[in-house]
Amino acid sequence: MAVNLSDGNRGQWGSKFGFIMAAAGSAVGLGNIWRFPFITGQNGGGAFVLVYLLCVVLIGVPLLFTEMGFGRMTKKGTIGAFKDTGANPLFMGLGAILALCVSFFVLSYYGNIAGWTIGYIFKSVSGDTGSFQEFASNPMNTIPLMGLFTLVTIFIVKGGISGGIEKAAKVLMPMLFLLIAVVAIRSLTLEGAMKGVDFYLNPDFSKISANTFLVALGQAFFSMSIGWGIMITYGSYLPKQTSIISSGLWVGLMDAGVALLAGFMIFPAVFAFGKDPAAGPTLVFQVLPEIFNSMPGGAIIGAFFFLLLTVAALTSSISMLEVPASYFMDEKKWSRNKSAWVVGILLFIVGIPSALSQGGSAFFSKMQIVMFGHQYTGFQDILDFFFGTFFIVLVALVTCIYVAWKMPVNKIVSELDTGSPTWKAGSLASSIFVFFIRYVCPITILLVLLNMMGLLGFFAGGG
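^ Transporter, sequence as received from the core. Prediction below:
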């Protein structure tokens, strides 16, 4: 099988730090700050946090190594990586093409949610106490804000790897940590905040069940950009001298770190004001604005909070746009500028039904589908189940099997060895890695998939 190792004019990361910031930025998104706290609240607090960290280290990080190595070895995005290593139609369809579709369709509605965060910055500053439903159901709010967010994403991606994505990540990621620190400190100084800290950090092991592990594994996938084609694409821009091992560890650490810090923003405030920590997705756009409005200086803290959500969404959106854009650059030989604009405009058009699905259109808001015994209502929720939940895990499983059993696996082991002097093929570390991606990772991913299908209980999570 022929592997094309030419770099062409695709560009490369200018520094290891820049790559880590960009890859961590991709992994760090609304899933960490929005979804992780309410999933933690629903699953018993501190006990779930421990299980989640275990899943990140044992499953998430080896899969990061695998996808980054696959991308750098082929110097191609997700479609080219599978094609150039001789993938058959099954692996091309369920691995490469489906991964590209995941990034595209998730970003189509992710832009809508990111638009909400922009709108809530202004709602916080202006003291607007209108309900979330009133805001989200108004197309004059949602569609222009989605367009604005998509436009910013396009401008960053069309700037190139080092001149656009890397440069933005170096600014946005430190800004994200600073904003999280500001909001967390304010939250921790509220009267009664320590009850939230106790709930968050004090493990109740009676809450841990088999389902806890499955939910934690699912969250690790959704928050770490595994199964999206993103880490394959980002890895393809990585110079040979850069260590994938240390880079992957840093990305996993930063991803889990932001998720953990998000808990210190949210749980102290939730408990200080007597709210339900298991309130679900409404926690961010309904419960927290109420809390901000009732605390001294709440308008400014609320604006900071929604600004950091916007930043987190942007660091992820640029990576999602890069996946389909890289396809047109690699396979169709389009310029970066043309690829970014064409994909971005298509994303905006495809995203309009999602922007109308919160009450703006009866048709898109009320459409329903039943999958695995659970009903999903609204265009955005249906897309989220398929592309933001189910297909991510399916792609992760197919990619893992392909790299570990079909390529063969020693090609990835050799790629990880390049640029990592402490990692040698045949060493104990590489042998453990091979064992994990051949046996442990596929089996656990399959369990998550079966659980989503209702065969092991039901995991009603979204991406």
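Residues 89-126 form the longest helix (38 residues).
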